Amino acid sequence: MSPCLHPRVPLCCHPRCPLVLPSPCPLVLPFPLSPCRHPRVPSRCHPLLLPTPLFPLPPLTPPLLPVSPPLSPCPRPAMAPLADLYQVSMAYGHWRAGRHRAPAAAELFFRRPPFRGSFALGAGLAEGLRGLRAFRFSAADVAYLRSVLPSTIDDAFFDYLATLDASEVTVTAIPEGSVVFARVPFLQVKGPLLVVQLLETTLLCLVNYASLVATNAARFRLLAGPDVKLIEMGLRCAQGPDGALSASRYSYIGGFDCTSNILAGKLYGIPVRGTIAHSFIMSFRSLEEVQARLPPRAGGDPVDLAGLAVSWLQRVCDLLRTPPGKANQGELAAFVSYAVTFPCDFQGLLDTYCGLEIMLDPPWICVPVVINAFPARARSGLPNFCAVALALHQLGYQAIGVRLDSGDLAQQSKEIRGVFQACGAHFQVPWFGTIPIAVSNNISEQSLEEFGREGSEIDMIGIGTNLVTCPLQPSLGCVYKLVEVNGSPCLKLTEDEEKMTIPGMKTIYRLYDAAGHPFMDLMALEEEPSPSAGQELGIRVLGRLGETTKVIPTTVELLHRTYFRDGQVCEPLPSLPEVRTHAQVSLNLLSPAHRRLHEPQVTWDTHWTPMADNLCFGNSKPHLCGHVPTLSILAKFPGIWRPGPG
């Protein structure tokens, strides 16, 4: 019997095998199946597969899909092994000491704002919560740990690991897509000490890159402005399939409009877009290769689109005062072929063949920058595209855009817009002057800044490498620090002041001014009363205790929500478009000073809020004291506050 031919069914559906099932197969075979041959992972294979070897792959087996998309119907793999080895070693130490069930708390935050800006976008929360739900060690995981940990470890510890889950863990967090600032906890985790310790690497892995790429995308959105469409096209240069899918998802949260990644679109519902490549155009040599008959949109007999395009090419070249013979015939054939295939979605790539000089006829110029200018350098693709687009228009269709992939993109966009407007006016086709112009070619933040300075007619920008690889800062640098054990605050003391931690479980507030802009994040101990709108707060800057200022917030917002309790997500999670909308609202609330992407004029005010001038540590909880032993601990932190008089 032949293998199952159910569409897209891989050879193994074991949750630890790096293959996924896009849809369940309804049929079940009445006999046992061969075990999965994934290393160290015993499993049964998909119910429709006969007991045949996993390798080599049968000729009819479709391409296999990568694991990790959260919407995959396959069971999510156990997440507990997604950890550094030393987490398990420390867990054993806690277990041996009988401290493994001690109540503990940790916080996840970053120390410095990324890309030398002032903010980050918090992302990865939904994935982190899914990871918590899947937190467990399978029998195979425990067996593997036995093989890599010292042989002196008690067997009972491995039995204990097999029972672990996150049912006693509570997680509070700032909503995904929110603006987050340095040293303000994005996540707070409470639970048994051993489990809180084991979650560190997992949560950092799921939040670090997600927040970094979302922030990078948000910066591109701020530079591009609200009207330019941004397409993420980094699949081919991303750090593997998982990195590519994450980049598509989190750049969408950061403000991109669509992706070129088909799988990301399928899994996450992100709009997918694409143009055409140079290889398609280069594959044609002449119009003789093209089957070019196309019926008018309103109906009727098919028309020879190639002949119609040739006649329009003559008219376009007459307008642009250039010989039609200079237009590349293979390129024209490619455009005609694409137009016949996609008459309602025709678009052109203009820079496959360069070097054609076109003198625009001044009476038809509509873009001021080209008037009285030197001859506009254009591509062979420009008259060819115009000819095919006008031929399509004659049959009732409308072209949807062009793309540029080399050269001075801003200047070319203005010159091409002039040609489009000239054709639209001369041939009385009003929509022609507004044909969207897309650009690509290693676009960076600097590119967008240049577009803004020079002015452009660009409508869509495709960004790949400089978005998904975040070359300006390869990691956000999130850290996960223990802040409390058994009700006693914990802190790290080090000569590097930046690495000193802020002890105790905290409540986080965001304060807003009269203009509606947030101006301060306030951290208070959990037992302290919350500040209120209109209350005068005395601010004391640590290290400069003699300098006291007053602030009166117009609005006070409690930032953290409880998302995970008793092993389950307890707060409804928003959809991806809802997270994206929240991110844009959060960014728009920032003052212009905080939105600056380079060398912000102000830093974000984050303040520590003990009810006295300093925080000391007794046997259990922070308490008030009259001396100042902790000033050096908190000296790097901008300030403290307490309620002002009255």
From TrEMBL:
EC top class, in one word? ligase
Q: Which InterPro entries match?
A: Aldolase_TIM (IPR013785), NAPRTase_C (IPR041619), NAPRTase_N (IPR040727), Nic_PRibTrfase-Fam (IPR007229), Nicotinate_pribotase-like_C (IPR036068)
The residues forming the signal peptide are none
Question: Any idea where the Nicotinate phosphoribosyltransferase C-terminal domain is?
Answer: 506-601
What EC number(s) does the entry state? 6.3.4.21
The processes (GO biological process) annotated in the record are: NAD+ biosynthetic process via the salvage pathway
Q: Which GO terms describe its molecular function?
A: nicotinate phosphoribosyltransferase activity
Q: Which reaction does it catalyse?
A: 5-phospho-alpha-D-ribose 1-diphosphate + nicotinate + ATP + H2O = nicotinate beta-D-ribonucleotide + ADP + phosphate + diphosphate
Domain (Nicotinate phosphoribosyltransferase N-terminal): residue spans on this chain: 83-208
Pathway of action? Cofactor biosynthesis; NAD(+) biosynthesis; nicotinate D-ribonucleotide from nicotinate: step 1/1
PANTHER family the record matches: NICOTINATE PHOSPHORIBOSYLTRANSFERASE (PTHR11098)
Protein name as catalogued: nicotinate phosphoribosyltransferase
Source organism (scientific name): Taeniopygia guttata
GN (gene name): NAPRT
